[in-house]
Design a protein that fits this description.
Blueprint: E1 2-9, H1 25-31, E2 32-41, H2 43-47, E3 58-62, H3 73-91, E4 96-106, H4 130-140, E5 153-162, E6 172-175, E7 185-188, E8 199-202, E9 210-212, E10 220-228, E11 239-241, E12 256-265
Parallel strand pairs: 2-9
Antiparallel strand pairs: 1-2, 3-10, 4-12, 5-10, 5-12, 6-9, 6-11, 7-8
């Protein structure tokens, strides 16, 4: 366990009836504040098999990729996308997997604000847009499910992994979905573009529990939930980076990729 500063939305936004905007470093500093948090090492839970996608919303998966250069967009799309789709079929038990074409590379030298290390706890989407996002991705993939999917369950995941080297600085911390009260989640604007660009983030609650996997390797992948059409399962794992107090003075900055995918489960399926 480490104790570190974690950025949280300022609590007054919970009852304001309007959405904050976090579009830049300046708006982030205006609308979020650091909070001292205990962040637990999730590896012991992983080793005991105690983490579950349906309950906690996140698991660690070992996977060796064939991608040589994650900065090569064509290679990522041709190799990594199919690898991750197969992983979700195997690990989550999905009948169909649909890849969101947007992915992010994060490094110490980002091209824009959205690709910088996240410095506040957030969710990738807003629950209110779940049906809209699902139908849109099904249409994008020309899936017959776009014309009718009665009884099907849909779940969105973020697949996050370090690239090029192990994580020595700025690891990802993730909230156990079972400790998140939906009433603490607030919608916000992470980019310009209207209602379709709305995402969400939580205000602090003492019941929330944060975890991380120290020194993640390039053959380790963190799979975590962002939306689920089944209200009886974990719904979302808010997440962000943090300054690890255990990092050495000569530690290298983190480089990582995150990809979003949607899983479809046929009626009657109980897989995670």
């Amino acid at each position: 366990m480490v104790r570190a500063q974690v950025g949280y939305l300022n609590p007054e936004w919970k009852d304001r009836g309007q959405r904050p905007k976090i579009l830049s470093g300046a708006t982030r500093r205006a609308n979020t504040s650091p909070r001292g948090m205990e962040i637990e090492d999730a590896r012991p839970l992983h080793e005991k098999g105690a983490l579950d996608l349906d309950r906690n919303g996140f698991i660690l998966v070992r996977h060796r990729t064939s991608v040589q250069d994650f900065r090569d967009t064509q290679e990522v799309r041709q190799k990594y996308f199919p690898e991750m789709a197969e992983l979700l079929r195997r690990v989550a038990g999905a009948d169909e997997v649909f890849t969101h074409s947007y992915y992010q590379l994060r490094s110490e030298d980002p091209e824009n604000f959205l690709n910088a290390y996240s410095l506040y706890v957030h969710c990738d989407y807003a629950d209110r847009l779940s049906d809209h996002l699902t139908r849109g991705l099904l249409r994008e993939h020309d899936s017959p499910l776009a014309n009718g999917a009665e009884g099907w369950r849909f779940a969105w995941y973020n697949l996050w992994r370090p690239i090029e080297r192990e994580v020595q600085k700025r690891p990802l911390t993730i909230m156990d979905a079972s400790t998140l009260d939906p009433a603490d989640v607030v919608e916000y604007y992470p980019a310009e573009g209207g209602e379709d660009m709305v995402a969400s983030l939580p205000v602090y609650n003492e019941k929330q529990r944060l975890y991380y996997f120290p020194r993640m390797q390039t053959d380790e992948l963190l799979l975590f939930k962002q939306l689920d059409s089944d209200p009886g399962r974990s719904q979302v794992c808010p997440h962000t980076s943090f300054d690890d107090p255990d990092a050495t003075a000569d530690a290298l900055e983190r480089r990582s990729i995150e990809l979003r995918m949607m899983c479809a489960f046929a009626p009657g399926r109980r897989a995670g």
